[in-house]
């Protein structure tokens, strides 16, 4: 049995704590705020769970089963299996089918008129993954915390700020003058990880728009899939409303690389209006409820998520956002494996 210390109670920290506790390790999770922390990057209405990605589609497809297992373990209903539609040029539909067949992913190819309230680029088809959908992010965090609180090998320490990490000694230095050492330390403090350990990451700021569908379309949207590669130029994405969530819109063009986590002075209503008009048919029927800026980090070399070794027994997971949320079980597996023989790994 190893002692695993985790800094950060976002999705990576909490799911890793669950996995390590189930593997027989003693686990301590600290966070500078409450647990779960509404200020964490993971705390949101919903995140996408999909398989047809630029990465290993086979591994991504396995995440569908992993999240079903976590839902059964943690209790509650937080995985809405509404499917995910990706916009593909019609001439690439066969390539999509081949990729899905190789990974064992069930898909259906749709004409855009099957989804009349979502804008597709000219000449595109919709490739719908059937074993995919939406993770209700806030519910996931609460379910994980409930499970962890009931486990005798787990200690949760909210309102415990980490001010430094001794990577050689596998130790967290705390704002109150204390410290926490472990056989393995995971720093998973989201966009703030890079303030604690040196990682090769960059910060992105994504503008998100939340809208409410018109009353006459509420039922349609309740059963609508998540969609990506949509909008008039194929750069947009949306997450459907359901179980109390709003319709969430954005695009890759609304993402910027920034040098600071500070919020901009204003939220651009014109940009939000433009996003709504590009992604939705009859956009003026969808009132804008909120506009939000989200900060997340990516590996500066790959543009994706990464787990980085920063000391003999210290690992850092700086990536947050949809990719980081979706792949949290994979990181949890790796940390649990490393905890068995942390220095030899």
UniProtKB/TrEMBL annotation:
Needed cofactors: FAD
Alphabetical list of Pfam families matching this protein: DAO
InterPro entries assigned to the protein according to its UniProt record, in alphabetical order: FAD-dep_OxRdtase, FAD/NAD-bd_sf, MTOX
Keywords, sorted A to Z: FAD, Flavoprotein, Oxidoreductase
Highest taxon of source: Bacteria
UniProt xrefs under SUPFAM superfamilies: FAD/NAD(P)-binding domain (SSF51905)
Domain FAD dependent oxidoreductase: 4-338
GO molecular function annotations of the record: flavin adenine dinucleotide binding; sarcosine oxidase activity
PANTHER family: PEROXISOMAL SARCOSINE OXIDASE (PTHR10961:SF46)
Name the UniProt record assigns to this protein: FAD dependent oxidoreductase domain-containing protein
Species this chain originates from: Nocardia terpenica
């Amino acid at each position: 049995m190893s002692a695993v210390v985790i800094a950060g109670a976002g999705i990576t920290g909490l799911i890793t704590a669950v996995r390590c506790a189930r593997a027989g390790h003693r686990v301590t999770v600290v966070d500078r705020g409450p647990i779960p922390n509404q200020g964490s990057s993971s705390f949101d209405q919903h995140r996408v769970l999909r398989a047809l990605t630029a990465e290993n589609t086979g591994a991504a497809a396995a995440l569908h089963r992993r999240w079903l297992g976590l839902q059964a373990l943690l209790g509650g209903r937080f995985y809405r299996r509404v499917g995910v539609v990706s916009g593909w040029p019609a001439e690439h539909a066969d390539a999509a089918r081949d990729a899905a067949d190789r990974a064992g992913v069930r898909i259906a190819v749709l004409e855009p008129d099957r989804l009349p309230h979502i804008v597709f680029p000219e000449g595109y088809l919709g490739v719908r993954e059937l074993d995919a959908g939406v993770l209700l992010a806030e519910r996931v965090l609460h379910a994980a915390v409930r499970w962890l609180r009931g486990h005798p090998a787990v200690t949760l320490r909210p309102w415990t700020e980490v001010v430094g990490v001794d990577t050689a000694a596998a130790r967290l230095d705390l704002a109150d003058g204390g410290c926490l050492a472990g056989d393995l330390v995971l720093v998973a403090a989201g966009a703030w990880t890079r303030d604690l350990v040196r990682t090769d990451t960059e910060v992105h700021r994504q503008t998100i728009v939340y809208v409410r569908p018109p009353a006459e379309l509420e039922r349609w949207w309740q059963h609508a899939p998540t969609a990506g590669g949509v909008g008039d130029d194929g750069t947009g994405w949306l997450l459907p409303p359901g179980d109390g969530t709003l319709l969430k819109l954005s695009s890759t063009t609304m993402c910027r690389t920034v040098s600071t986590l500070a919020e901009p002075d204003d939220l651009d209503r014109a940009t939000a209006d433009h996003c709504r008009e590009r992604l939705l048919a009859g956009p003026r029927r969808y009132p804008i409820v909120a506009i939000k800026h989200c900060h997340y980090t990516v590996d500066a070399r790959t543009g994706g998520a990464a787990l980085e070794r920063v000391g003999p027994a210290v690992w850092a997971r700086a990536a947050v956002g949809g990719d980081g949320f979706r792949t949290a079980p994979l990181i949890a597996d790796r940390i649990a494996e490393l905890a068995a023989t942390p220095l030899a790994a």
